[in-house]
Structure formats: C-alpha cells, structure tokens
C-alpha cells in the first residue's frame, strides 16, 4: 500500500518534469535558428551585412589622384572589416603598372610614400574599358547577363548597408565616365529607386568626390539614403597636394580629410556620421562639403551599441555567416547540459 | 536516495538522448578533415629556375604543379587542388586550357628562342587564352562565352571581351592540331598588374605565405623587363587534372659592385642573389608540397673559372639542354635562421649569347596612305643551322604560320606573295598546306594558317598580303593579333627540360592605324553652306527691298570730292527714298 501510494506521486512528478523539459527544449529549438534568419519585412529587417561599391571613373595618367582616392577608400574599408567578396572595385585605368609609374605595382596617396595602397592582395572587379555607365547601373540594379560571375555582382539583400563611393570628373548633375559618357543625376536617382523597390539595401551611403558633387544626388527621393558630396553647385573640388616624384597630384582634398577621420578609427569604434560631417573644414577643403540627410530616418548623432556607421560594425556581419551554425550548436549543447544538471539537482 | 532514482531516470535519459543527438550534429561541422575519399592522391610541387642572361639580366622562372587524380563522382573533396579550377574543368568540359597574362616583349635575340623556357613561356603581351573542349561543335561557342566570363571574374581581368565571335578564332591546325574544338583569343592591350597575380596565388595551397611563392615581392616583379604568368590545365579521364602555373620574370639586378676593367671594354656582369632580386629570403618550403626545389642554370664550363656560386649547398648537377648545367638546391633544409640564398658572383667578365631559334620572325606594315596597305611577315634565319639541321643541301624546314586579323582590316588573301632571299617564288613550290577563313564584317576575324617548306640554306623569307582599311567610326588606334610559327623538330611536345620539344615564336604586336573621320568637315560644310546662302539670300533681299538703280556718275573736275574711293567703280548704288 505504501508502494501503491508512492507510485502515483513519483509518476505525476516525473510527468511534470518531462513535460517541463520538453517545453523548454522545444522553446530552445525555436529560438536557436532565429539569430541566423533575417526577417522578411524591410522596415523591420535587421542589418546583417555590409557592401561597398567603389568606383573610379577617370582614365589617363594625370587622373592618378582619382585612382588613389578609390584605392584609399578600398584599403580603409578592408581594414575596417569588409572582405573582398563584399567589395566591388571599379577602376577605369591602370596606374600601378602604368609605364609612366616609376614605382611599379605601387600607388600612393601621400608624397611621403609611406603607404602602398595597392598592396599585395588587391582584387579589382571591373577594370579598364569595363567601367562604363551601363556596367555601373547593372551592378547596382543586379541585372546582369547570366554568364556574369558572382564576384562581379552586388549580391546585397534587404539587410545590407551599402557604401557607394564615386570619384572622377563631374559637373552640374553629371559624372563623367572614361572621358566618353556621363552618368546623370536622374539616372542615379532611378537606379536607387529600383534598388529600394527590389529591397537591395537597408541603408545606402553615397559619397561623391567630384566637382559640383552635390548636384549628382539632388534628384534622389528613396528612403534610407544618405549622401555626402565634396562640393556644392558652382564649386570645384580640388586636389590636395602634388607629388613631385610621381609628377601628378596624388589625392583629392575631400578624400584626404575623410581618410584622416577614418585613420583614427578601428573596427570596434563607435563613431557617428555627425562627427564625420563636423570634421570637414570648408577652408581646408576649399569647397563646401554638402550632405543630404532628409531621406535618412535615423538621427545621425546616436551612439548606440550598433554604431551609426553600420558598415563599420562587423560582429553582426560575422554572425550572419556560416559560423552561426556552430555557435548555435554549441549554445544548444551547453543549455542541454545545464538543464540536465539543474534537473538532477532539483529532484 | 532510492526515491530519487525512478524520478530522475526518465527525464535524465531523455536529456541524455538529446545530448547525444546534438553531439552527432556537431560532428559534421568539426570533422571536415578531407578524409572522406577524393582527398588522397593529390600532389603539389614547386620549383624555381634561375638563369643569368647575356644582357646583364636574370631570368627567374617559378613553376607550380598540382595534380588531382580522376574521380568517378561529380562532387569531390579537395585537399590541395583548388576547387575553383576543378569546378571550371567539370562545368565547361575542358580538355586543355592555357591562359597567360604578359607584360613586356620577350627579346628573342638576347634571351634565346629555342630552349624550353622561351618556347613555352615567351608569350605575346596582354592576355592570351586558348581552350580545347570535350563537347559537340555546336555547344562550344556558348561554352567559350561562359568560360571567358568565369575567368574574368576569377582573375580580375577583362577576359569577357573575348566572348563575341569577332574576338576569337578557331584555327584548324595552325596552332594545335584539333578537330574543331579549339578556340583561341587574345587581348593585346590588357594591362597586367597585382590584381591578376592575387587570385593566381590564391589557387596555390600555400598561397604566397610559405614556400617559393613567398619570394614574390610585387614591386620587384612588375619592375622587370618581362613578366608572364601562365596557367595551364590538362584534363583527361585517365590521368585526372594537371594544373601547371608558371611565372616567368626577367629582372635587372642592381649591382653596385660591377666595375669597369681598364684593359678592355668588357664590364663585369652584375652579381646577384635571391635576397637582392626579391628583397625577401627563402625560409622554408611549403609543407604541403611534395617537393620544393631551386635550380640554377649555367652554361657548361662557367663554374670555377668565371662564376662563383654563392650558396654551395646544391645537392645535384644535371645536364640541361643545349650545353648548360643545372644545379639543384633543396628548399627543405632552409629555415628562418638559415635562409637559402642562391646567387652567383662573377669573377671575370664574359660575353656570350643564348641559343636562338632557327628563324627570327617579325611583322610590319608596308604601303602608305589611309586606304590600303600590306602586311609583311619576315623570317630571318639566325645562322644556327648546324644545331638543328644536319646536311644543309638536302633538307627543308617546315614552318607553320598562323595569323588572325580582325574584321575591320580587310585582307585580300589572293594577293599572298612569298619571296625567298629577295626572289619571288611560285606559291605552289613553297606552300604545302593552306587554310584560309576569310573575315566577315562584324562577325568573324580572318584566319590564315599556312604550312611552308623552306630550304635550310635560305637566309630570309617574306610573306606579304594586301589589305584595305575600313573607315571605322572609332577614333582609337586598334591593335591586331599576332602570328606565331612552329618549327617542328620531328618529335612531339614534351614537358621535361631535357627532352625534345617544338619551337614556337611570336612576333611583335602590329599596330595598324585606321582612317579616322575628318573632324573638320562639319565646320567646312557649315561655313560653305552659310556663305552660299548668305550671298544668295543677301542679294535677293537687296533686289526685293528696293531694287538697285544704276546711276551714271559724272565725274566733275571742279567738284571733285576728296573722297578716296573712285565712285565710278561703284556701278550700283542703293536707291534712296
């Protein structure tokens, strides 16, 4: 009888414990895959990858500084964590191995020649005569011939933050490509609109370093876009200094001061866009750096744990990659272990 | 305690089962060691050949070889062999492929034209791609297009410009004997720089971090007089895939120790070593390499008298082709404390010349004007007959010439003329076999494959073809492809440095200035038209407005006005109201 009385009690308790643990495990299994999945709605989509599209549109030796501008940004973007697979680099001419370059395979952005921007591991996706307005627009909209390889495509999605940097010669509402064609501001606005419709970006930062740069993004009207130009309508953008050894100017002022700002940062810094804008001095730039924030929803001076420079933040990017499966499995294992221990202790 | 056991057993068991299950899920993530079939049997070897050249330069030839055994399954795991290349071979059904990126011109006169290095590594400047496919003929052209795009993404070059049929040709037997499945294309203006070397090195198992590839200091390579990186693939059912990557660089060592000897004009050749040439040291081999060797090639008999080898840890000496000796060094013995620094020091000045190919080929334009011209290919004999041909009187040399010309240079193949030693010849005497694929406007380039038989004793031969220049709308001066010729040595093409081979040379790239439109014509037309219209309408308006009245002007002496213009010249005066 004592045994009979004891039996229902343990069975009820064991049932309860079994149910509880099953419920907990079930909840775990649901929650586990969630960090690695991205939500479908664009407004609540999470930022999980960064892309950079860096375009140099000028050719000829005397436009060395445009190449140096783009390569400086390339180096900065790589240093701050975006890998080559997420960078589309378009260089309209070859400066490093140009016959007029007395320093073969080296490109400098300063006359002290301390930093070789070309380095050992540069990967150029579009070069030479491939840098055309058509290819540029194809990259941004994602409309390629089926034969085009993956490394030449911008494979961004609704959780991407994209940096688009363009440099070269420009004017009122246009940017010159290769000395033979132009990209106009309404073309750019249309492309950005298409990108937004196709959910190809969450936030887009456009930086333009040309003469009258601000006119190039005057027609933009898609949300989530931030644009910075080196000069306003009617103003020219100037080069910073001449390198008498190489014989041409090696960097533009706007890019030079942008780089001095970024050289102070590393991958884990929390910097805000407002501090970048504040760092531009119109006297030093010899032009007015103009930025357009009306299309950008978040306030620029927020310093949050996900910094406003979404494309500086790497940790979330890493979590979105293959390693997330390992982390999840390890987490699951640890939790089961803890659960086992706690169950054994509680009984 | 006894009561705890039945309570904790149930959930505890369940949790244990879950734990074991999760562990089994973890294992495939961790256990990717490549031990599951297909990883074995792959091998990788690396070699470097150093050779002084007669004009004070040094040739450095890097050779990397990867082999993957054949596998029955489509998907496979790779241990050493690059997966990107294996996928390329499998997707496009490639039997053979060669892709070369070259900057500079191989100087056949000074650096030699007949040794295996120059035959296989002297490439035309720019990008050259040819491929043999294992597919039916109608599928080859779309596959070629996809292949060019895939390679352009892989090697950061504009190889996709070869996709259109105007950019590539399919020679029947002029380049390699094939049965219609060969495609050949070249881009002479393509720049070659670090971005092409980066993915090429990423294919190697040790990349450029360890082994011989760690010597590749980019500014040194791109400062050279000639650099050519080449990738060659051979795939077969029986042997699997063999991938050969070579980088040939001709460098000028900066040697401040060379001094002028007062007795003669001869200057001491520059002494050099690996650390001087590449600014880096050889500190160990790539651990994944089956063998890692450095060879030093010197003309036989130079050692002990004229040249001193700096590092005498060579382990073997072989006989190379055409009178040279190869000294072999093993890289395994070197490490960071004891780097391997191969080099030579010249003790006495020496002037020598490399072995030339039997013929020196060059190509140039004849004629003047913007309408037509002629292309001429000249073959100069280099007086090296005794090395190639036995008896001069009774022998003939077979020469194959391949020439690919874009469609905008319209070549008239019926105007082909051949002259030997200045005397024009009958074509049927000299030509053994000829194959012409004429160009089609905007569709196909023109291909000429011709096999000629020349007497061994001849000094020079010239082929010429007339062409018309198309008035092309582009203002750029465009370049053409270039021919090459083969002198068959009566044996098949083999890979070893010590065996017989086919001699192949390329001529220089030919620059054809095409007619550019006369840009002053619109201005001229506007000016002339406006002048004519002004004269016509002006006079018409004058007549219509009030007419012109003819007046007689009576000159009066007393009332001679002091006007300077004689009024009787003005036959017509406008009427006054």
TrEMBL record, chain A:
Catalytic residues identified in the record: 169, 211
Family according to the record: Belongs to the peptidase C13 family.
Molecular function terms from GO: GPI-anchor transamidase activity
GO (cellular component) term, any one: GPI-anchor transamidase complex
Family matches, as InterPro entries: GPI_transamidase (IPR028361), Peptidase_C13 (IPR001096)
Species for this entry: Ananas comosus
Record has Signal as a keyword: yes
Alphabetical keyword list: GPI-anchor biosynthesis, Signal
GO biological process, one term: attachment of GPI anchor to protein
Name of this protein: Putative GPI-anchor transamidase
UniProtKB/TrEMBL annotation, chain B:
Single GO biological process annotation from the record: attachment of GPI anchor to protein
Domain of life the protein comes from: Eukaryota
UniProt keyword terms in alphabetical order: Membrane, Signal, Transmembrane, Transmembrane helix
Transmembrane segments: 523-544
InterPro entries: PIG-T
Signal sequence bounds: 1-31
Keyword Transmembrane: yes
Pfam families: Gpi16
UniProt KW Transmembrane keyword: yes
Gene Ontology CC terms: GPI-anchor transamidase complex
Protein name, UniProt field: GPI transamidase component PIG-T
């Amino acid at each position: 009888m004592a045994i009979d009385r004891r039996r229902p009690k343990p069975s009820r308790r064991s049932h309860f414990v079994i149910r509880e643990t099953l419920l907990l495990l079930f909840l775990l299994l649901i929650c586990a895959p969630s960090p690695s999945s991205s939500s479908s709605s664009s407004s609540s989509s999470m930022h999980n990858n960064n892309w950079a599209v860096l375009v140099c549109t000028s050719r000829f030796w005397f436009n060395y500084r445009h190449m140096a501008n783009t390569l400086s940004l390339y180096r900065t973007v790589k240093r701050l964590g975006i890998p080559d697979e997420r960078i589309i680099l378009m260089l309209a001419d070859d400066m490093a191995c140009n016959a007029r370059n007395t320093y073969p395979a080296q490109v400098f952005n300063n006359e002290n020649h301390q930093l070789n921007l070309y380095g050992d591991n540069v990967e150029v996706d579009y070069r030479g005569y491939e840098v055309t307005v058509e290819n540029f627009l194809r990259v941004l909209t994602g409309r390629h011939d089926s034969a085009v390889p993956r490394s030449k495509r911008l494979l961004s999605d609704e959780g991407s933050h994209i940096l688009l940097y363009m440099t070269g010669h420009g004017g009122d509402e246009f940017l010159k490509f290769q000395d033979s064609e132009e990209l106009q501001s309404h073309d750019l606005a249309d492309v950005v609109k298409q990108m937004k419709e196709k959910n190809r970006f969450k936030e887009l930062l456009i930086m333009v370093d040309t003469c009258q740069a601000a006119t190039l993004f005057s027609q933009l009207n898609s949300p989530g876009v931030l644009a910075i130009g080196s000069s306003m309508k009617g103003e020219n953008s100037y080069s910073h200094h001449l390198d008498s050894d190489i014989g041409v100017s090696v960097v533009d002022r706007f890019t030079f001061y942008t780089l001095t700002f970024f050289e102070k940062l590393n991958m884990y810094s929390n910097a805000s866009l407002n501090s970048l804008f504040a760092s531009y001095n119109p006297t030093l730039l010899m032009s007015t750096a103009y930025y357009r924030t009306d299309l950008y929803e978040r306030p620029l001076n927020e310093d949050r744990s996900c910094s406003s420079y979404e494309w500086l933040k790497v940790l979330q990017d890493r979590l979105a990659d293959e390693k997330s499966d390992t982390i999840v499995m390890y987490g699951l294992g640890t939790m089961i272990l803890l659960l086992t221990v706690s169950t054994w202790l509680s009984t | 305690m006894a009561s705890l056991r039945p309570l904790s057993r149930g959930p505890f068991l369940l949790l244990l089962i879950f734990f074991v299950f999760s562990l089994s899920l973890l294992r495939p993530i961790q256990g990717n060691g490549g031990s599951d079939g297909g990883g074995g049997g792959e091998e990788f070897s690396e070699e470097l050949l150093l050779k002084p050249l007669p004009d004070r330069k040094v040739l450095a030839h890097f050779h990397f070889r990867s082999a993957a055994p054949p596998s029955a399954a489509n998907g496979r795991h790779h241990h050493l062999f690059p997966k990107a290349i294996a996928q390329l071979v499998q997707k496009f059904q490639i039997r053979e492929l060669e892709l070369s990126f070259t900057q500079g011109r191989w100087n056949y006169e000074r650096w030699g034209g007949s040794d295996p290095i120059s035959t296989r590594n002297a490439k035309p400047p720019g990008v050259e791609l040819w491929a043999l496919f294992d597919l039916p003929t109608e599928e080859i052209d779309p596959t070629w297009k996809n292949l060019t795009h895939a390679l352009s993404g892989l090697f950061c070059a504009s190889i996709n410009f070869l996709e259109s049929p105007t950019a590539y040709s399919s020679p029947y037997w002029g380049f390699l004997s094939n049965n219609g499945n060969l495609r050949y294309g070249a881009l002479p203006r393509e720049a070659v720089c670090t971005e092409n070397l980066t993915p090429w090195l990423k294919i190697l198992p040790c990349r450029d971090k360890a082994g011989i590839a760690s010597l590749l200091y980019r500014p040194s390579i791109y400062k050279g007089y000639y650099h050519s990186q080449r990738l060659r693939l051979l795939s077969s059912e029986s042997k699997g895939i063999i991938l050969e990557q070579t980088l040939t660089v001709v460098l000028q060592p900066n040697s401040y120790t060379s001094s002028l000897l007062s007795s003669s004009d001869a200057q001491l050749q520059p002494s050099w070593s690996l650390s001087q040439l590449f600014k880096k040291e050889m500190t160990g081999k790539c651990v994944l390499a089956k063998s890692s060797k450095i060879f030093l090639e010197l003309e036989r008999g130079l050692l002990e008298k004229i040249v001193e080898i700096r590092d005498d840890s060579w382990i073997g000496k072989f006989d190379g082709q055409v009178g040279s000796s190869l000294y072999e060094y093993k890289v395994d013995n070197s490490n960071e404390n004891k780097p391997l620094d191969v080099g030579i020091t010249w003790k006495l000045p020496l002037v020598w010349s490399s072995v030339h190919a039997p013929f020196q080929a060059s190509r140039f334009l004849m004629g003047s004007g913007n309408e037509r011209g002629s292309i001429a290919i000249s073959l100069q004999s280099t007086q090296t007959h005794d090395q190639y041909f036995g008896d001069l009187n009774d022998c003939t040399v077979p020469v194959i010439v391949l020439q690919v010309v874009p469609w905008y240079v319209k070549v008239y193949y019926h105007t082909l003329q051949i002259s030997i030693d200045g005397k024009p010849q009958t074509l049927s005497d000299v030509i053994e076999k000829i194959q012409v694929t004429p160009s089609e406007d905007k569709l196909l380039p023109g291909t000429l494959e011709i096999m000629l038989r020349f007497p061994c004793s001849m000094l020079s031969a010239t082929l010429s073809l007339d062409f018309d220049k198309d008035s092309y709308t582009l203002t750029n001066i465009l370049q053409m492809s270039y021919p090459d010729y083969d002198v068959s040595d009566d044996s098949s093409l083999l890979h070893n440095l010590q065996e017989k081979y086919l001699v192949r040379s390329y001529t220089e790239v030919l620059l054809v200035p095409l007619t550019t439109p006369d840009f002053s014509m619109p201005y001229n037309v506007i000016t002339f038209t406006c002048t004519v219209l002004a004269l016509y309408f002006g006079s018409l308006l004058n007549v219509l407005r009030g007419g012109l009245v003819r007046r007689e002007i009576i000159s009066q002496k007393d009332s001679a006005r002091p006007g300077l213009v004689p009024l009787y010249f003005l036959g017509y005066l406008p009427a006054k109201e």
